[in-house]
Amino acid sequence: MKVLATSFILGSLVLAIYLPLVVTSSKTLAIPKKLQEAVGEVIVNATTCTVTCGLGYKEETICEVGPDGVRRKCKSQRLECLTNWICGMHHFTILVGEEFELSCLSSDILEIGQEAFRFTWRLARGIISINDEVFKPFRANSYFIRFKPAQEYDCGTYRCDVQLLKNLRLVKRVYFGLRVLPPQLVNLNFQQSLTEDQKLLDEGLEVNLDNHSKPYHPKWQKKVASAVAVGIAIGMVGGVLVSIALCNVLRGISSNDSLKSL
């Protein structure tokens, strides 16, 4: 009985789907004349957003397209776009006494003027974190913070929120992790750690890297290696000379013994 009931239900569903198709297929749809002559605006080209996070711009090309498919009266327009308003964390490490600047707006957005935005800065002093509970208000009304010069007290995480003044819409949030180190603690001059080939490449010169570059060795290591090589060579030569001398002595002794026995 269950099998029959299931078969009946499935058959009814198939019949309900099939009947409308049969009825509509026997009739041709008549498109009104006004609709056939209609002209509409269509986006024929669009660029990606200028930024991956925060407020950016994109270019769109719109054309009128008629029944013949020909594009007419094309025009380009620049529109605001927002893919993601959270921009993550940017890390910076500087030395005490250096001048530095944190900026939370891109140059293309600044073209319309910073007056169109509201900037709110908050600071988690002394730590690197994105936990909003540890941030406290930081007095800055501009889109940038400038350190002239930077001190150890300035280290921490700075958070910048950008809102549109016309509707207070949050369009960007970015974090800056700033470390300020004293010069005595670490040497950040990476030029000293480069090999000779890497220094030449950094200066824009061509270097043959077909043979793997040899690691850099200090001069004192080269001197020790040279001394060891010379010592080994002298020892080997001295050993050969001593061996020859011993052989000659033993031959002389054996010849004397043979003469005495005669």
Automatic annotation (TrEMBL):
It is found in: Cell membrane. Keywords: Cell membrane, Disulfide bond, Immunoglobulin domain, Membrane, Signal, Transmembrane, Transmembrane helix. Residues 1-24 form the signal peptide. It is a single-pass type I membrane protein. GO terms for cellular component: plasma membrane. It comes from the Eukaryota. The keyword Magnesium does not apply. The chain crosses the membrane at residues 224-250. The keyword Nucleotide-binding does not apply. Residues 97-163 form the Ig-like domain. InterPro entries: Ig-like_dom, Ig-like_dom_sf, TMEM81. Its main location: membrane. Essential fertilization factor required for male fertility. Part of a conserved trimeric sperm complex with the essential fertilization factors IZUMO1 and SPACA6 which bridges sperm and oocyte membranes during fertilization by binding to IZUMO1R/JUNO on the oocyte. This is Transmembrane protein 81.
